[in-house]
Amino acid sequence: MILHSQIFGEGKPFVILHGFLGMSDNWKTLGKKFAEMGYQMHLLDQRNHGRSFRDTTFSYQVMSEDLLAYCDHHQLDSIVLLGHSMGGKTAMEFACDHPQRVDALVAADIAPKAYPKHHQDILKALNSLDFNQLQSRGQADKVLQEYIPELGVRLFLLKNLYWVEKGQLGLRINLPVLTSQVAEVGMALAPEKHYDGPSLFIRGGNSGYVTDLDILSIRQQFPAFQVETVHGAGHWLHAEQPAEFQVLVAKFIK
Prior knowledge:
- The chain is α/β, with parallel strands linked by helices.
- The protein has 2 domains: 5-114 and 187-253, Rossmann fold; 120-180, no CATH class.
- The protein has 10 helices and 9 strands.
- The protein has helices at 28-36, 60-73, 86-97, 120-127, 137-145, 151-158, 175-180, 214-221, 237-240, 242-253; strands spanning 5-8, 12-17, 39-44, 79-84, 102-108, 161-165, 168-171, 199-204, 225-230.
- A 7-stranded mixed beta sheet has the order 1-3-2-4-5-8-9, sandwiched between helices. Strands 6-7 form a two-stranded antiparallel ribbon.
- β8 (199-204), α8 (214-221) and β9 form a beta-alpha-beta unit.
- The model has no long low-confidence stretch (mean pLDDT 97).
């Protein structure tokens, strides 16, 4: 099975991988900016997300294999690869496994280390949605409000809502599998893995995901690395400061 994607633009293939509970649509605006720079953009939905296939197996190893199958299917011999959060971990895994296929790696607000489970509240909120009762996006938002006060986070999650058929709402994510296997999202990159190609780690200044201490482990596994900080941005740095994020990526991949 091949991952669903949105493809546009012409030039060097540039693949973008979204984060946990996200989808390719999250990257459409920035993707168009990169396409204007002369890249053929491939915005992917990872397994159990968006319009891609559902599967009970969920790990960075299989998501790396999904990306390899995608590149083979579309005859992408070498790519620029960008991933945010969970997508950044998939990107690291792929770059280490298939270095000859990656010309440049960008990891957005994620380090190769292990992270503790921290999506429980969001998953609890999503699991509280009763699709036998919900008739609108507004009703779903009211349910989520009880668990998630931040409007931005709720809007991000509500992008997963769609009409399965007339009068029947559903979620594009495979919620049961993502809930039961959420620990996989925090797994570390195996310490023996490394990628010697050029890599850029961009972190949000207000995010705690990539600390100064983490730079030591990044240096060990990605020796040709750079680190940039987007000040005034949290974990969703590409959405909070898109212009600065684009400039940093553009400067690096050129």
